[in-house]
Amino acid sequence: MTDIRYVAPTTLEEAIAAFAAAGGAGRILAGGTDLLVQMRSGIVKPGLIVDIKKIAEMTEIAETTDGGFRIGAAVSGAELAEHPSFKKVWPGVLEAVNLIGSKQVQGRASAGGNLCNASPAGDSVPAMIAAGAVVTVQGPNGRRELEVEKVPAGPGRTNLAPGEILVSFKLPPRPEGSGDAYLRMIPRTEMDIAVVGCGVSLTLKNGFCTAARVGLGAVAPMVLLVEAAAKALIGSKLDVAALEAAANACRAACRPIDDKRGTIAYRTKIAGVLLKRTATIAAKRAQGN
Amino acid sequence: MPKLHVTTTINGEPMEFLCEPDNTMLDALRNQLGLTGSKEGCATGDCGACSITVDGRLVCSCLMLAAEAEGHEIGTIEGMAQGDRLHPLQQKFLEQAALQCGICTSGMLVASEVLLKKNPNPSEEEVRFWLAGNLCRCTGYDKIVRAVLEAAAEMREARP
Amino acid sequence: MNDVTFNKWIGQRTIRPDGVDKVTGRAAFAADTNMPGMIWGKVLRSPHPHARIRKIDTSKAERLPGVKAVIIARDVVDFPVDKSVMLGIQDMRWMCRNVMAREKALFPGHPVAAVAATTEAIAAQACALIDVDYEVLPWSIEIDDALKPDAPILHEFNTFEGKPSNIMGKLEVKKGDITVGFAQAEVIVERAFTTRPVHQGYIEPHACLVSVAADGKTTIWSSSQGQFMVRAMTAYLSGIPQSDIRAIPAEIGGGFGGKTIVYLEPLATLLAKKSGRPVKMVMTREEVMRATGPTSGSKSTVKIGAKKDGTIVAAQGTFYLQAGALPGSPIRGAVGCSFTPYDIPHVLSTGYDVCSNRSKVAAYRAPGAPIGAYAVECVLDELAEALKIDPIELRLKNAAKEGTKAAFGPTFPRIGYVETLKAAKGHPHYNAPLGKLQGRGVASGFWFNAGGESSAQVNITEDGNVVVTTGHPDIGGSRAGIANICAELLGIDYRRVSVIIGDTQTVGFSNLTGGSRVLFASSMVVTEATEKIISTLRERAAKIWQIDPEAVKWENGAAHPVSPNAGPFEPLTLAELANKASAMGGPIGESVQLNTQGAEGGFGTHICDVEVDVELGIARVIRYTAVQDVGRAIHPGYVEGQLQGGVAQGIGWALNEEYIYTRGGNVDNPGFLDYRMPVCSDLPMIDCVLIEVPNPKHPQGVKGVGEVPLVPVLSAVANAIHNAVGKRFYSLPMSPPKVLEKVDASVQQAAE
Questions:
Q1: Contact between B63 and A36 using a beta-carbon 8 Å cutoff
Q2: Backbone φ and ψ of C474, nearest 5°
Q3: Which residue, among A29, A26, A31, A72, has the nearest Cα to A52 in the 3D structure?
Q4: pLDDT at residue number C3
């Protein structure tokens, strides 16, 4: 017998009530690929597990009337990959979500969980930041929206208020000539945590970059929105000098740590390399090749 | 909290079991239901030895709560052969010596079966990336990849 | 006898006897067995790298409801440090201290107590209630730290060169006089190398289930590389006589040497005895990584001198290997194997066994040999470069062959090393074009191989089929090889031969599955038993036909008259003779036990191609060919499997695998996520070339094949990276930050 409780409510209101009532002892279960590992290792000992996958809004992928997307927080990477049009519009977001763990993990892991786990190295987060995603959260005091980069507060911490649950991501409609991409550096070809992750979303018009956003992961306590890198790209033809300037901006933004996955020097250098490579792919996609 | 009562379908058969709220699906399969074909190599989703399907989707049973099985269809290695008729993947693994110690084999087969359902004609690279979540320390993966490719070819031919 | 001739089953890719069980999930591994009334055992482990244990108070744990037994060091039979008690290559003085810390905890993860309780959760909770009073001591992990004059000494009783030391032993192999040799040299290359500890990485964690009856009769289900080793060590450590311990070998989910010693079985036995309940213990992956044997980290220096024409005249190697907390690093493999592929007149190879505060090492595939070969084969590559000789040519010029006296002792009979070099040189891979930032490396390797004790029973069933029982856990398909050989000898379909692994009380003593000895040794005993059965069958037929047994021959699964002159008899099949067995003299079966001799060493030569992403520092292996003298490939599929598996482990060791430590001396990457073994998408197909130079001392020509393929890999990869980017790597792993640092330095130098 254990003193953990498990509930799987079918409405968001029930989920919030139960979660809020549990106080700090509650944990949200979406894909569970982080939560169960943390429980197993004893880092987390929840008193209540709230499984949100029986709530329709949490598991839906909807195309909005303006041409954007709304993705439920518990949608798994595998489900997102199966959506007929999402991959065409946001290939970078999709590849980022589907770099989280193995195929087995992708069958469960969600972008919502990846964001709320608040690891600086979460793969989907830099791509979501680059995409300009906005999240909807709901708690005992109602619903609110905030930019995705505002969610992490530090390693393992978020800016969600007590009792608040992440409900969905809203991705904006894409102007013509837009593309996005996500690349990460890992020592192996799969199954590692990103040593550096970089997401770029940009729009090209007549060969010039008219809009860009850059997200950078695993180089600071939180995933970063690197506005200076975006600025270096905007207005350029993504020539060597512009890419180098953006790469330098990424390096300058890095505040990494030395740990078992990489050194400060290595991470900083790689951040620039990945920016150039990622921006190049995003640009190709923007041009439709 | 009392044990949870879970009603589910495992390998096509209706099944009920009791579990603690924090039991994993792997615990339930191995310790409640006697289905020990799914193995625990790491309990952190890094080795794939516990691979099962949930409504046809590939997952690590160590990263799923047993309670979550309620109302879903679970598939394990024990359901892969039809009576004494092996699945073509199982047959090819035997013919190609694609297993040595055998501890990863259940997970490899379950993962490969899902791949071939989604993609009946995968490239070597697609097989390798699909199986990246299934660690094998014995074979160097060579014969496993060949067995999957050959099983895929045979299954394509067998299809009318 | 040893010519490769047409065989019906030897050399065929038959279906392994245990195959269907393993593809359907039916096979029972260590953690797959349960018993009524079973309870769960858990180990309390030291959080400190080095600490004296002043006192352990288990009273709170014992009072916790559900707890059935608690044990600490005093429950384990002590082996005082002043008297060695050897069991195989293990010393029980160290084993008793490894399974449970006695005077001191010597590494983080060292067991200090164990609990059995009705659930795993209660057992874990009880562990947390045990009070251990530690006196925390200074510690060292790296070799250099353990060798410092003021280094904390792990074993105060030990001295080296008259002083307290962490050097627990020294091994020297010598031939000729290196002073004379180096004086003749025209070119000398000397380099220093380091390698990091790496784990065997078996996917199945250690596990066991033990039941002890009131009269002491004990049954152990566990997976190991030797049920007899499990029985003997458990008997020593529990005080229960071997005759009362039945060790049943479960299917084993990988070992690679790491399951040649016990961790859990003695503890579970003591807990089961104390509680009167069957006790199951299963390690977590984290426990496996923290507390079971990886192989040594090392530092070494290798110096090789040659004439300008490439003739090697002298070689010297000095190898320091980490033993971990207790003595016993594989210096023999490093010292003995590394120069052995070469006929060198003057050799001095020295190894030092160094203790430090990390888990005790266990055997890992050709223990020590890859560490030595990494240094030697990298130096040879530099020597070839300095002499402007093709690296395979350099090796060919100096290759050991029949009649060469190895520095570690023996003079070789007919061996196949030269054949591996020639095959590698002539292989399309060796001359295939390389792309930009791609490189190719070659390296060779040697492993002793091993014979030793094996037992087998071969019984003919009443319906005329065959059951073979051997005493060696089968990790890589040895049962398939045995079935092929037995079927070949009897002239029957291999599917009529059932091969099983007996437990300790039903089959004769058989030594470990290790050292690449199993198929060599067990096929010897099975061959002798089967040949005896064939004589019996001929005698039975002779009796029925009332002719001389000499006039009966055995062919295609039946007795035949040797010639028409012997009489006009219809053949008597195995089934017919089995059917008449009782009437004609009784059941037909043979049991053979041997201390097998004549295991000749094995040689391999590998070719590796890499591609380096110089911006990220990532080296990827893009093509690999392993050539090996395998003696005789009884089941080529599983021989290739040994080569491919060894290569994959070597690529991991070369590129990414390593133990990373926290500042506090704890392992910082105790799981598959950050230990980074190769995954499927990391590797190319691994091509194998099987050279068959039969072992003249074995009935089927068998040589061990399992260890050799790991030996050359580290250097083959290092040499390939050098070939790609022009940089030498003297330290493993060649992980992205290290590669990038060197490549960057060269870019900077070029700019300056």
A1: yes
A2: -105, 115
A3: A29
A4: 43
Dist. CA C415–CA C444, nearest whole Å: 14
Q: Which of A119, A192, A257, A260 to mutate to test the interface with C (most CBs of C within 10 A)?
A: A260
The count of other CB atoms within 10 Å of the CB of residue C171 is: 17
Residue C4: strand, helix, or coil: coil
Residues of C in Cβ contact (< 8 Å) with B95:
13, 15
Interface of A with C in 35-54 (CB under 8 A): 41
Residues C38/C278, Cβ–Cβ less than 8 Å:
yes
Q: Which residues contact A70 (CB under 8 A, 6 or more apart)?
A: A60, A61, A62, A64, A168, A169, A170, A171
Q: Quick check: C25 contacting B, CB < 8 Å?
A: yes
With residue C201 as reference, give the H or E element that holds it: none
Picking from A190, A266, A273, the nearest residue to C679 by CB comes out as A190
pLDDT score of B1 = 63
Instruction: Confirm if A158 and A142 have CB atoms less than 8 A apart.
Output: no
CA neighbours within 13 Å on the CB side: how many for C214? 0
Q: Residue C193: which of C320, C359, C322 has the closest Cα?
A: C320
Closest by CA to B139, choosing from B150, B126, B130, B128, is B128
**Cβ-based neighbour number of residue A287 at 10 Å:** 11
Please, which residues have CB within 8 angstroms of residue A237's CB and are 6 or more apart in sequence? A207, A208, A209
* Token pair for C524: 């010897």
C-alpha A168/C-alpha A74 separation (Å) is 8
Name the residue in chain C with its Cα closest to that of B29: C32
Q: What is the pLDDT of residue B57?
A: 97
Chain A contact set for C740 (CB, 8 A)? 266, 269
Contact A103, A81 (CB under 8 A): no
Tokens of C362: 């266990």
Separation CA B145–CA C540 (nearest Å): 50
Helix (H) or strand (E) holding C302: strand C298-306
Give me the percent of chain A exceeding a pLDDT of 90: 97
Q: Is the pLDDT of residue B123 over 80?
A: yes
User: What is the model's pLDDT at position C752?
Assistant: 52
Give the predicted TM-score (pTM) of the model: 0.97
For residue range C256-306, what is the model confidence (pLDDT) as tens digits?
999 999 999 999 999 999 999 999 999 999 999 999 999 999 999 999 999
Q: For C17-27, write each residue's pLDDT tens digit.
A: 999 999 999 99
| Interface membership of C660 toward A (CB under 8 Å) | yes
Report the chain A residue with the minimal C-alpha distance to residue B57. Answer: A107
* C-beta neighbour count of A4 within 10 angstroms: 19
CA distances from C478 to C261, C702, C705 (A): 21, 12, 11
Element (H, E) at C236: helix C227-238
Mapping DSSP onto H, E and C, the string for A16-72 reads HHHHHHCHHHEEEECCCCCHHHHHHHCCCCCCEEEECCCCHHHHCEEECCCCCEEEE
CA-to-CA distance for C2 and A267, rounded, in angstroms?
58
Tokens coding C313 = 């005249």
Using only the alpha carbons of chain A, give its radius of gyration.
19
Q: Are C113 and C72 in contact (CB under 8 A)?
A: yes
CB contacts of C681 in chain B (<8 Å) are 125, 128-129, 131-132
| A140-199 confidence digits (pLDDT tens) | 999 999 999 999 999 999 999 999 999 999 999 999 999 999 999 999 999 999 999 999
ipTM of the predicted assembly exceeds 0.95: yes
For an interface test with C, give the residue of A38, A186, A189, A244 to mutate (most C CBs within 10 A).
Answer: A189
Q: What is the mean pLDDT of residues B94-123?
A: 98
**What is the pLDDT at residue C189?**
98
| Stretches in chain C below the pLDDT threshold 70 | 1-6, 746-752
